[in-house]
Amino acid sequence: MAELVDLAASVLNLANDGEHLEAYAVHTVTTTVEAGSGAAIRRVDRAETRGIGLRLFFDQRVGYASTGDVSAASLRASVARARANARASDPDPPNVPPEPQPSAAPGWTRRSTLPERLEDRVVVVRQAVTAAESIDARVRAVDSGEYRDERREVAVVSTTGVRAQFERDWRELYVDVLGEHRAGQAMDCGYWCGSAGDDVDPEAVAREAVERTIRLLGEPLPRPPGVAVLLDYTVAGELLAAVGRACTGGAIGTGRSPFARLVGQPVGSAGVSLVDDGRPESVPGGTTYDDEGVPRRCTSLISAGVLIGALHSTATAVAMEDGSTSTGNARRATHKAAPRAAPAGLRIESTAASDQLAAKVGDAVYIQGLTGAGSGINSVTGRVDVGGVGWLLQNGAPAGPVATVPLATDLVSLLRTVTQVGDDTRPHPESPVVAGTVCCGPDLLG
Amino acid sequence: MYVEDRVTETVRLDSGAVSEIRSDRDVGAGLRVVGAGGRSGFAYTNVLTIDALIDAAWAATMASDSEASGGEVARMDLRERVVCRPVQWADRPADRTDPAVKVDALRAVDAGARGVDKAVRNVLGIHVDTAQHVVVATSDGELRRDHRVRTRVTCRVTARRDEQLQTGFAGPGAGRGMELYADHPPDGIGALAAGRALRALAGVQPPTGPMPVVLGSAGGGLLLHEALGHGLEGDGLARGTSVNAPAFDERIASPLLTALDDPTLAQEYGSYAIDDAGTPATATKLLETGVQVGALTDADTAAQLGRPVTANARRESYAHPPITRMSNTYVQPGKDDPTTIIADVNRGVYAVTLRGGDVDIATGEFAFTASEAFLIEHGEVTRPLTGLTLLGNARNALGSVVAVGDDLALTQALCGKDGQHVPVSYGSPTLLVTGLSVAGGARG
């Protein structure tokens, strides 16, 4: 870790008078093990990346450059490119380098270590696939089981005095199961995500995959009118991720958000409270600092249905011109990306015990997955035009699949239909969101 | 071993001001070892020294075979026996163009969008160009090279009227340099995106239920890409999880449809001279008059399927293992006049472009959202529609194509799969499809 900080710091003396330079150095090691039918190992990947991203601030302009070649010559060339890019840019007064801020939390977030041996990872994925293949005769095949873990070390230093170093460890396991029935086939997955020290239960992931898949098998039933809608945690997570993107300072400040003119106003039912907390104790893979070296914190976005906050990087906070400060939400996907305000650990607060939700709602449509979510959820306009894949809940139990349900609404209308939020919260597979089962009124489906 | 040296230049113009100019250089090597039993190991490093490469090779070897242990390092005689001429090239290399020129182009995009209507509130223009040198060496002694250049400009317009927001998008790209702007004048790119946002603002709710759908070239191309192409990628076929797995030599689509994947198209966005496993590129016929005749493979999946290797191993970068992907996928043009196709529809919808969509390759079920659509009434394109979603099943949709136009055009995009994004093109002539269901909702 000291080596990474030294690497980042080594470029700072290349800044000229009147310039500020920020260096973001990253070292990531990712290991992936994938197994297929018969728990045969298909693929083992080990990925190691080291690189440095630069921001050069000069005369209210910013230029960016990055390189994976961290030789002294390459770093000098990258600083020169960043300088040339800054000179070709327009003035951008809010885009200033962060000043150092005190943080009581250490940058080291590791609670234990990731597996040292490859075979320890192989055992986990093999157990999951073997279990998935043996639970139910309707399972035709395991499409894939995949275990992945990542350790990311980051150092952010700048000529303004920022000197932050932190580490991000996480691991995940998923199993995709293909089920078959005379009416056709269906596929769904079980998923687990945790920090380095959390225990994974491969058989539980397999059971979840099989149960989710089997619920989708069978002749589609007609959708009864006027019943409640339950959103699976994956569906709720996907939709809340769009809410989170729409609640960033950049989106609200520039009007590119359905929430842009709604700060201080109700945007959801009284049962909706949404916070963002990307710290290690709140979300797997959380960090104590954001990617500008600003300490992370808990930010309330929606409280009892009222929009009260936004997520900020340094630049989006300054651009608000109302005294806002960074909420520690600057994110760089890699060293090649500029920092942008983004959710780090979005969480919808629960209002009910999840095991009582089914009993409370009676009959319902349970939407287990979405089709068309990649393009059908627009966080700028707020439009949601997707297909819902799911099943009927009758008398508290799954009764069979329903034909794809068109979900045509917008994010604000969606939040206004929420009646309960279950306490079965868990990390979403693809977004920094922690969500549980969300119960919505029947008007969600029109 | 796949070695890459890539320079990427990115310029963003947001709300009329340059918000980012960046230069990224990425150099690295990805090593893949296929061990006994087909288990593969992959490792990569961006430290290009002999010692670091050997370390990565050992990591990949041990990953491919847990019984492996250290051994002798031997020198090989690598030969470039097949020289593949690049299919992408630049007359005006973008990586050697002053960033101020790219800024000027984006300012013209911005002006083109804002000149359409005062309802245009925000314009985000992004220019991205890459120059990529690739060398692939294999343990059978082969060494192959490719040089790829790509330039793309995207414009996203946000328009507001009466508290309603809508967005419009345009994003042409090519396997060429700054000459892209000669074929696609920047002010026209902005005007195209703005026009789409404004038509969405004026849009009405679509009718719902099964009805004839006319797909424009971008819409039909995306349907082909998502509903057929992904199902014919070798990895899903080899696992047996694709709905297309048992359907070779069966009719799965209308006899009017013949479709190809062709990475050799000159200067197209998804083109390459060799794939990312070093196989020389060739065109692959996927559908022949509606019969499933081809699959997109690499060496591994071809061996598992007993089918030819088709040079479709692709990766986002040296840091990703190659997987089977599409390149430029399209439906061959038919004989119908597009205006006649529309004139033959009494009541239906015309989906000019689709914003994207998902297909479950296990079932073929899909949902697509239209980014630009119109109502067809009595053979005429009338009112714009907003919030239109197309639901269907791949086989039903492709089997119910009843007319194919003579107006093939390609659209450029980044295609995502297994966390990797690669540049692709897709396209079709105008299609008339009867097996789709239209859904939609209240205006946003």
In short:
The complex is a heterodimer of chains A (446) and B (444). Chain A has 446 residues and is of the alpha+beta class.
Strand content of chain B: 35-45%
Instruction: Report the helical percentage of chain A.
Output: 10-25%
What's the Cα radius of gyration of chain B? 23 Å
Largest sheet of chain B: 9 strands, mixed
The H-and-E topology of chain A, N to C, reads as HEEEHHEEEHEHHEEEHEEEHEHEEHEEEE
Q: What structural class do helix, strand and pairing data of chain B support? A: alpha+beta
Termini of chain B, distance in Å? 50 Å
Uncertain stretches of 5 or more adjacent residues of chain B: none
Domain tally of chain A:
2
Count of helices of chain B? Answer: 9
Radius of gyration of chain A, in angstroms, nearest whole number: 23 Å
Query: Care to count the β-strands of chain B?
Result: 24
Mean pLDDT of chain A: 90
Question: Could you state the oligomeric state of the chains shown?
Answer: heterodimer
Relative helix content of chain B: 10-25%
Largest interface: A-B, 77 and 77 residues
**In percent, how much strand structure appears in the residues of chain A?**
35-45%
- Ends apart, CA distance between termini of chain A: 54 Å
Number of strands of chain A: 20
